Amino acid sequence: MARSLSEIEALFDRPFFDLLYEAHGVHRRHFDPADIQISTLLSIKTGGCPEDCGYCPQSRRHDGGVEESPLLTTAEVVAAAKEAKARGASRFCMGAAWRGPKDADVKAVADMVRAISDLGLETCATLGLLREGQAEALADAGLDYYNHNIDTSREYYGDVIHTRDFDDRLKTLSRVRKAGLKVCCGGIVGMGESRRDRAALIAELAAMDPPPESVPINLLVRIKGTPLADQPRIEPLEFVRTIAVARLCLPASRVRLAAGREGMTDELQTLCFFAGANSLFAGEKLLTAPNADAMADSALFRSLGLRALPA
Ligand code: SAM
Ligand code: DTB
Ligand code: SF4
């Protein structure tokens, strides 16, 4: 039975070692703890977004210092996907700075999806809100995952984003599910939300039926020119707790240590893996922000005895 919000808050409040021990046990029962799934991101359409998400440098309402560029060609995207595969990624994730795609955009992305699937990579797209029929068109092209984050609790959402609401996000997620796509849905921590908001984010994800197969937990990348640029950094161990609670409440989902790894020490990432994170983004960039260094990632994998899941 799904845990209530107060039960999830109580998990956050547990002594750190009790929480980690239990989360690691659940992790081991559902996964081989040496396996890490690796995704690589590519921004296929950058900047100039009409939405006002407070964390995002790609909003045209913020001065996030991002250079705008139109939709890439299939050839450009395939070249990046080949490189990602050569570097060990099993999934290629395409992001576009749209409120949502036009039907012509969906057609263009469907072409990219077909070409990338032919390389033997899993595909994921994050294109914003989907209208009737668009998820089906992506599923017909062979798209594996659709990423659409709820970002934070229903209560805190309106403090961060004003141009679309929480229920708009849920509606797209249900369209994605109905079309038979796998769901990648998570959130961002470190945006000034309370522990209760973090618990409510996880409660919302765990209540989805079925829960998302892939759950990215992003640590806010504080980008100059965005409204959240000056947020204080979240306590590192509170971030580890968030991963552990996500693992306990979403035992069979891949929990991704997503944005924000470039500012984390090896030791902090190690605690996150122990707490149940078993997926990450590799590659020079996230969408527009720099990512953790690839050499440092390989060294950490070697020293922990972790291995990338094959494509
Ligand atoms: N425009 C589409 C949308 O918002 O659904 C897709 C791309 S959008 C950049 C994908 C996700 O990236 C957002 O939902 C958010 O969770 C995450 N994100 C964006 N900026 C971020 C930041 N500065 N730090 C952490 N995560 C971020
Ligand atoms: C997700 O949860 N995080 C990724 C991916 N899904 C699309 C995006 C992170 C973006 C970080 C800021 C940037 O690079 O612009
Ligand atoms: Fe646009 Fe997506 Fe950025 Fe929001 S998160 S401003 S919808 S690109």
Describe the model.
It contains eleven helices and ten strands. The mean pLDDT is 97. Strands 1, 2, 3, 4, 5, 6, 7, 8, 9 and 10 form a ten-stranded parallel sheet that branches. Helix 9 (236-249) runs parallel beside helix 10 (266-275). It starts with a helix and ends with a strand. Helix content is 41%, strand content 15%. It has a single domain, classed as Aldolase class I (TIM Barrel). With 311 residues, the protein is of the alpha/beta class. The chain binds S-adenosylmethionine, 6-(5-methyl-2-OXO-imidazolidin-4-yl)-hexanoic acid and iron/sulfur cluster.
What is the 3D shape? globular
Number of helices: 11
The CATH topology, please? Answer: TIM Barrel
CA-to-CA gap between the ends? 33 Å
Radius of gyration: 18 Å
Q: What's the domain count?
A: 1
Structural class: alpha/beta
Main beta sheet strand tally, sense and closure: 10 strands, parallel
CATH superfamily: Aldolase class I
Strand content bin: 5-15%
CATH class (first level) name: Alpha Beta
In this entry the ligands are: S-adenosylmethionine, 6-(5-methyl-2-OXO-imidazolidin-4-yl)-hexanoic acid, iron/sulfur cluster
**Helix fraction?**
40-55%
The secondary-structure element order is HHEHEHEHEHHEEHEHEHEHE
- Sequence stretches where pLDDT stays below 50 over 5 or more residues: none
